[in-house]
Amino acid sequence: MSRNEERTQTRALLTKKGVLAFESGGTKLVAGVADSSGRLLETRLCRREPRAKAPASLERLIGMGELLKRKYESEGWSFGGAGFGFGGLVRRSTQETFMCHHEEGWNEIDTGQALRQKFGLPAWIENDCKVAALAEAQAGAGRDARTVFYVTIGTGVGGGMVQDGRIMEMSDVGEAEIGHVIVLPQGPKCGCGMRGCVEAVCSGPGMSALAAYMGAPRAMTSHELFAGWSAGNQFAARVVEKAANLLGGALATVQTLVNPDVFVIGGGVGSNLPAYVELLQRTARQWVVPYFRDRLRLECAELREQVVVHGAALLALQKLNWRTE
């Protein structure tokens, strides 16, 4: 066998090694398979039941994972581990899922143990925004930057920081919780229990609450508000610009404190509303300390719906030392 043939065979064998990846979010559950380079091969998605609790959601995730694992093993694949992007807080030292604002019961089950037992693989759990940051830093809009601060704007507002291709772990229970920076004291109540958090006024539901707070004549969805802003509706423009000012102030504070190379804005807003991301950049820039101002850079996320499950796969690969960059 020639050297070229040996290298080709070696590459073929390597591509038969993979990891499982999972995501639990506010509205969806996702399972996926990635190869040893971090490339997603297949994902399966189901919508989370609005009143579902953790055991039912975990069972559905495991079920999708088992189907994928059996399918790929029948084609000669082997699996080294699993990563899980969890839509809540994780205690890193014990891998506990101990708090989730949109679904009850995660603090009552041993999620990591369930994954390890069901699949016979090592498993690692991290907050969904942190693994999304990892994915955008390695394979998305932040891949040319050393330090990436990721912000997702959707059902909630979350954040994550990555430096040199790895999540910046500042404490056992997380960091970068930009969604719970208070920007409107005495404003609408947040799911965390405080009032006027970024999430309470700048997420999708938060913008609806902000509109009501500002005197909307009826209930308005964030979709209606953005559509009205684009069409020149004065009230919608007031609400959208107020939200941009509030979030822009929080971003400016992060720039002044952390000075990341780039903010990647994800979720429904970052992926679908580049004009709003441009507004955020203009708004935030005026509040950044002058000598950091020219470094402020916002980019729309690139990986869209697959960003969390992609990041969960990359996390598992890093933990396995199969992928370190």
Topology of this structure?
Elements: H1 3-14, E1 17-24, E2 28-35, E3 40-47, H2 54-73, E4 78-86, E5 89-91, E6 96-99, H3 111-119, E7 123-127, H4 128-139, E8 147-153, E9 157-163, E10 166-167, H5 198-202, H6 204-213, H7 222-231, H8 234-258, E11 262-266, H9 267-272, H10 274-285, H11 290-293, E12 298-300, H12 307-319
Parallel strand pairs: 1-4, 4-7, 8-11, 11-12
Antiparallel strand pairs: 1-2, 2-3, 5-6, 8-9, 9-10
| Helix proportion range | 40-55%
CATH structural class of the largest domain: Alpha Beta
Quaternary status = single chain
Instruction: Give the count of structural domains.
Output: 2
Number of helices: 12
Strand arrangement in the largest pleated sheet: 3-2-1-4-7
Low-confidence stretches: none
CATH topology of the largest domain: Nucleotidyltransferase, domain 5
Order of helices and strands: HEEEHEEEHEHEEEHHHHEHHHEH
End-to-end CA span: 32 Å
CATH H-level superfamily of the largest domain: ATPase, nucleotide binding domain
Radius of gyration: 21 Å
Give keywords.
325 residues, Nucleotidyltransferase, domain 5, 5-stranded mixed beta sheet, 2 domains, 12 helices
Entry summary:
It contains twelve helices and twelve strands. With 325 residues, the protein is α/β, with parallel strands linked by helices. The strands form three sheets. Strands 3-2-1-4-7 form a five-stranded mixed sheet, sandwiched between helices.
Kindly describe this structure.
- This protein has two domains: 11-132 and 306-319, ATPase, nucleotide binding domain (Nucleotidyltransferase, domain 5), CATH 3.30.420.40; 143-302, Nucleotidyltransferase, domain 5 (2-Layer Sandwich).
- Helix content is 42%, strand content 21%.
- The protein contains twelve helices and twelve strands.
- The chain has helices at residues 3-14, 54-73, 111-119, 128-139, 198-202, 204-213, 222-231, 234-258, 267-272, 274-285, 290-293, 307-319; strands at residues 17-24, 28-35, 40-47, 78-86, 89-91, 96-99, 123-127, 147-153, 157-163, 166-167, 262-266, 298-300.
- The strands form three sheets. A five-stranded mixed β-sheet has the order 3-2-1-4-7, sandwiched between helices. The protein has a five-stranded mixed β-sheet with strand order 10-9-8-11-12, with helices on both faces. A two-stranded antiparallel ribbon has the order 5-6.
- Strand 2 (28-35) and strand 3 form a beta hairpin.
- Helix 8 (234-258) packs across helix 10.
- The mean pLDDT is 94.
